């Protein structure tokens, strides 16, 4: 886990440029940019207003004390995702050794970028990402958001992703720092222009060049994104869940079977008439809850939430099936008014 700089250490960040794609983020962009002022001196920021209709660019322009370049993106070329097209335009303005790709809803605690850069330098890392601490203020966030990290780490084990093995790569797109030269080496964002899980796709491309990648958790990187209702969480998961399974019905069936065996079968066994089966099921439920404990502990949640894993897993499976049904009906994904068609599936 990476922490922000203790004692307010000052960093010279003249070799770092932050690129932020922003679409309808007026409510949070001021906080995001204000936090960047506390990172160190010399930091450059490029914000690409991706066709916002809520005054995002104007809100960003009101933040003083930053070396800020504002770009406006109105058009989206065929086959590109909006975020990646915005990033492609933003990185064209980067002339520093390091580039940070930062989501518009991510708040960085003071000194995070300096600490992350020093980690990269000292450990020979060329591409590093930090998974943000998610918002946990209402019931649905507390129930479902820790599991997002739990299932992500099941799909992309950090130990394997951080190993030299090029078959395994992962990244958390909220905050990525990389050596700028790597973008030119892979052909820029054009190399992944249609990707919806763009962070992991980018990590895979970079790692294929022989660069060392790293992913970690941090409480010093905070997501400001609100998920006030079940529908909010549902849409967030369903947007890319079937993409994670490479749009494969076979993988969806396998995922369903595994979820039944791992999370529902032990719970069902608690109601068996055979005492031995019930005892074995109880141990299985405790083991299942135990695997969730590190994630709950990270987010300061009670261990009791782990006993709800069958319910949580069932909800995530339903969201995954919802994602598949949307895809089969012609909708690959949607985000803030943009719909990506299944017929335009470019990866």
UniProtKB/TrEMBL annotation:
InterPro entries: Glyco_trans_2-like, Glyco_trans_2_hopen-assoc_HpnB, Nucleotide-diphossugar_trans. GO terms for molecular function: transferase activity. The keyword Cell membrane does not apply. SUPFAM superfamilies: Nucleotide-diphospho-sugar transferases. The chain crosses the membrane at residues 247-265, 277-295, 307-328. Residues 17-186 form the Glycosyltransferase 2-like domain. NCBIfam families: HpnB (TIGR03469). This is Glycosyl transferase, group 2 family protein. It comes from Methylococcus capsulatus (strain ATCC 33009 / NCIMB 11132 / Bath).
């Amino acid at each position: 886990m990476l922490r922000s700089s203790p004692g307010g250490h000052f960093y010279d960040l003249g070799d770092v440029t932050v690129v932020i794609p922003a679409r309808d983020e007026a409510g949070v962009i001021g906080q995001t940019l204000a936090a960047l002022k506390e990172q160190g001196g010399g930091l450059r920021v490029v914000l690409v207003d991706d066709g916002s209709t809520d005054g995002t660019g104007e809100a960003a322009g009101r933040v003083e004390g930053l070396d800020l370049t504002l770009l406006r993106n109105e058009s989206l070329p065929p086959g590109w995702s909006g975020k990646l097209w915005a990033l492609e335009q933003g990185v064209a303005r980067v002339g520093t050794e390091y580039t940070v790709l930062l989501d518009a809803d991510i708040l960085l605690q003071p000194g995070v970028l300096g600490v992350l850069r020093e980690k990269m330098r000292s450990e020979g890392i060329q591409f590093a990402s930090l998974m943000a601490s998610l918002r946990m203020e209402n019931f649905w966030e507390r129930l479902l958001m820790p599991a997002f990290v739990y299932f992500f780490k099941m799909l992309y084990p950090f130990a394997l992703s951080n190993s030299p093995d090029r078959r395994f790569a992962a990244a958390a797109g909220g905050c990525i720092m990389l050596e700028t030269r790597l973008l030119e080496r892979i052909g820029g964002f054009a190399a992944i222009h249609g990707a919806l899980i763009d962070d992991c796709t980018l990590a895979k491309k970079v790692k294929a060049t022989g660069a060392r990648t790293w992913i970690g958790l941090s409480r010093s990187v905070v997501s400001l994104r609100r998920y006030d209702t079940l529908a909010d969480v549902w849409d967030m998961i369903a947007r890319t869940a079937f993409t994670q399974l490479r749009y494969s019905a076979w993988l969806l069936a396998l995922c369903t079977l595994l979820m039944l065996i791992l999370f529902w079968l032990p719970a069902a066994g608690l109601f068996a008439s055979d005492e031995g089966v019930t005892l074995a099921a109880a141990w299985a439920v405790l083991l299942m809850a135990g695997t969730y404990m590190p994630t709950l502990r990270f987010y300061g949640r009670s261990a009791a939430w782990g006993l709800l894993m069958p319910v949580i897993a069932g909800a995530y499976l339903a969201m995954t099936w919802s994602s598949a049904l949307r895809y089969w009906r012609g909708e690959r994904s949607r985000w803030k008014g943009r719909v990506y068609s299944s017929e335009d599936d470019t990866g």
